[in-house]
Design goal:
- 43% of the residues lie in helices and 12% in strands.
- With 359 residues, the chain is α+β, with helices and mostly antiparallel strands.
- It has two domains: 208 residues, no CATH class; 111 residues, Nuclear Transport Factor 2, Chain: A (Roll), CATH 3.10.450.
- A six-stranded mixed sheet has the order 2-1-6-5-4-3, sandwiched between helices.
- β3 and β4 form a beta hairpin.
- α2 packs parallel to α4, α3 packs across α4 and α12 packs antiparallel against α13.
- It is globular and about 65 Å long.
- This is Sigma-70 family RNA polymerase sigma factor.
């Protein structure tokens, strides 16, 4: 089966949708073309689920493709005892659990070490499998749906939250995502996992405690992009592209962070970030920023002055300041994933504010 375009997927994708219903039974009798369409209608939400489980957009898409292949091959044996949606989630969960066997958990640089200094050597970089990677919103979030559910879904793909999920044991991770993000009942999760309701509730309690110990919560309040944040991002783009350190000083939070996977090095504090930009990061001068949508947050494709790709920037903001600059340097894979050209193609038309954070 071929992958459908992200814009053509179901409105249920990725949001905090209701648990499976029984209205989808009997699909096994449908013509093959109709079966394919019904499977593909769930691709976006399944990709969002697998991304939260695995922490990698590429692994998530591979997992969903494997899910679709297994479902296609077994569809004539699907007996309709559950909905097609819950059956697909069962397959996807098993695929993810298989992929997670024996693998190290993905993380962010700040999960692995203390902040570095400007004088710390940048090093040679760690393997891709070390890192939580960014994901385009369109691959994991519905293009339409209930605004409140969409806001919750955006919160649940924040890089910090996805990183926190990786600290959970795989089955706890699945339980928490299904219960807290997708709003499945304990009985439905127990049936999917072949477990008991008591076991599911126990796993959820342990998962919540682990997240809370790390300062994260599955029910963090959504933070929509308001006019003040849009203005902040417009000023950030202007200051970064002009490489105006005075303007950036006014925009960066005093304790803001800068990270650059695949490098383990990361910085904390406005002063160190500015020193970095004027020193080892001076190649950013003259950059062009192109808005994209990533992890439910403002984001940009960053091109150097000569038009070559440099990074996907995912930005965190709070209280009128930029609190995190998360730059992902694997442009060979990430720019095609985000639909960005291999060379800077000129300024985009219209609003320079990223679509990622929505309304």
């Amino acid at each position: 089966m071929k992958r459908s375009s992200a814009s053509g997927t179901t409105a249920a994708g990725g949001s905090a949708a209701s648990a499976p219903n029984e209205g989808e039974r009997g699909e096994q009798a449908a013509p093959q073309g109709e079966v394919a369409d019904r499977l593909e209608a769930h691709r976006t939400e399944l990709t969002g689920y697998c991304y939260r489980m695995l922490g990698s957009a590429f692994e998530a898409e591979d997992a969903v493709q494997e899910t679709m292949v297994r479902a296609w091959r077994a569809h004539d044996r699907f007996e309709g005892r559950s909905s097609l949606r819950s059956w697909l989630y069962r397959i996807a969960t098993n695929v993810c659990l298989d992929l997670l066997k024996g693998s190290q958990r993905r993380a962010r640089p700040m999960d692995l070490s203390s902040p570095s200094s400007v004088d710390t050597p940048i090093g040679t970089g760690l393997p891709e499998a070390t890192w939580i990677g960014p994901v385009p919103d369109e691959r994991v979030l519905a293009s339409a749906g209930d605004p409140a559910e969409t806001a919750v879904a955006r919160e649940s793909i924040r890089l910090a939250f996805v990183s926190a999920l990786q600290r959970l044991a795989p089955r706890q991770r699945a339980v928490l995502i299904l219960r807290e993000v997708l709003s499945w009942s304990a009985a439905e999760v127990a049936e999917l996992l072949g477990s008991s309701v008591a076991s599911v509730n126990s796993a959820l309690q342990r998962a919540r405690a682990t997240l809370a110990a790390g300062g994260e919560s599955a029910d963090a309040p959504p933070r929509p992009l308001d006019d003040a944040q849009r203005s902040l991002l417009t000023r950030y783009v202007d200051a970064f592209e002009r490489f105006d350190m005075d303007a950036l000083t006014a925009l960066l939070h005093e304790d803001s962070t800068l990270s650059m996977p695949p490098y383990e090095l990361w910085l904390r504090g406005r002063a160190d970030i500015l020193k970095w930009l004027l020193g080892p990061g001076c190649g950013c001068e003259g950059s062009h920023l192109v808005p994209v949508a990533a992890n439910g947050r403002p984001a940009f494709g960053q091109y150097r002055a000569d038009g070559s790709p440099w990074a996907i920037q995912v930005i965190e903001t709070e209280g009128g300041h930029v609190t995190a600059l998360q730059s992902f340097l694997d442009t060979e894979r990430l720019f095609p994933l985000f639909g960005l050209p291999p060379r800077y193609a000129g300024p985009p038309e219209g609003d320079r504010t990223p679509a990622a954070a929505g309304s």
